[in-house]
Amino acid sequence: MAADSARTRALRSIAADISWARTPNRSERTENARRASPMSLDYWIAKVRAEGVVRDKDVQAAAESYYRAHMRAMSLKAAEARRAKSELQRPALRRTA
């Protein structure tokens, strides 16, 4: 069974490579996914509009605030992960009295 799944993965990988080789405009092909990503302001505008709380004229500013909050949260999470990794790698200090 493991051989079947390895074969399936290999065939899918081959198919994906062929598909990308036949793609004339990669940016156009991936545009919808980029717009649906939290890294896109369009994503946050859609989120603000879906909530229906903000007036139409303030949607852009609210979306930008959501984006900044998202980026700051990601930065905080990364800093915490780096700190935790550093703590694991640091040898325990021993007190001698």
Structure keywords:
mainly alpha; flat; 4 helices; 97 residues; 74% helix
Describe this structure in words.
- By secondary structure, the chain is mainly α.
- It has a domain at 32-85.
- It is built from four helices and no strands.
- Helix 3 (41-51) crosses helix 4 (59-89).
Ordered list of secondary-structure elements with their pairings:
Layout: H1 2-21, H2 26-35, H3 41-51, H4 59-89
Helix pairs in contact: 3-4
Low-confidence stretches: none
Strand content: under 5%
Radius of gyration: 23 Å
Helix content: over 70%
Largest sheet descriptor: none
What's the number of extended β-strand segments?
0
Assembly state (oligomeric) = single chain
Tally of individual helices: 4
Ends distance: 61 Å
What would you call the structural class? Answer: mainly alpha
Q: What is the N-to-C order of secondary-structure elements (H for helix, E for strand)?
A: HHHH
**Shape by Cα distribution:** flat
Mean pLDDT: 92
What is the gist of this entry?
With 97 residues, the chain is an all-alpha fold. It is 74% helix and 0% strand.
